[in-house]
TrEMBL record:
<dbReference type="InterPro" id="IPR001279">
    <property type="entry name" value="Metallo-B-lactamas"/>
</dbReference>
<keyword id="KW-0378">Hydrolase</keyword>
<dbReference type="Pfam" id="PF12706">
    <property type="entry name" value="Lactamase_B_2"/>
</dbReference>
<dbReference type="GO" id="GO:0016787">
    <property type="term" value="F:hydrolase activity"/>
</dbReference>
<dbReference type="InterPro" id="IPR036866">
    <property type="entry name" value="RibonucZ/Hydroxyglut_hydro"/>
</dbReference>
<feature type="domain" description="Metallo-beta-lactamase">
    <location>
        <begin position="39"/>
        <end position="232"/>
    </location>
</feature>
<protein>
    <submittedName>
        <fullName>Hydrolase</fullName>
    </submittedName>
</protein>
Amino acid sequence: MKVTILGCGGSAGVPMLGGEDGHGIWGQCDPKEPRNIRTRASIFIQMEDGEGILVDTGPDIRAQLLTHGISAFKSIFYTHAHADHIAGLDEVRGINRVVKQPITAYATPSVLEEIQTRFNYVFQPWTPPHFFRAVVEAHPVPLHGDVVMGGYKVSLLEQSHGRIPSSGLRCGEFAYSTDVVELPEASFEVLAGVDTWIVDCFQKEPHSAHAWLDRVLEWKDRIRPRRLILTHLGPDMDWAWMQANLPDGVEAACDGLCFTLPDPEKA
């Protein structure tokens, strides 16, 4: 299983739009460090047999997929329905044309309902053989529990994203938890024994909807993953500062970071 971090930025990316010269607001991030340039949060999971699962379709998804040479997959998992995680759904049309079939979108019923409200046409029945629009088929999944995606067992875990729930996932020895500020006890049980965990860490100070550094380090002490990678990083999280200050076993994500782990169990 190969995991690629397509984007590791917050909802506005880094740099954020604006700035005195119009070239962005960098906050504490050094604009001369390329690893501080962050597109919106998304990952791609590819199994050894070629089966792929895209997690979220943010507004940067077209460029992300082109950059990393990803052009074929049949599954998308949505963590929640905020715009920075769904706004690029139309770009799936190009993938439809490659795989010559609709893409399956896995999400909780409430998330699917919201996505369908915004992209109703994408979920309309397909008339073969052409794709004049993206074509996606909804596949409801629970907020917490085991499901099958692309023929593989995936364990979903409930998360709190402030005012709304979000979904994390675990595939074998790997777990992904973007947009999370609190975890219920049952989700800690799903994460037990995980080797590599990518987790939301938007800033250093407490936040109402996103985990911050001290909270993530508390979770690390409880779950004890071998490798913990921080994502959904805001403009407060400078690459060099993190390199100098993060403890052993904790590292900052950057767009394009990838690693391999054993495939999860096949269903």
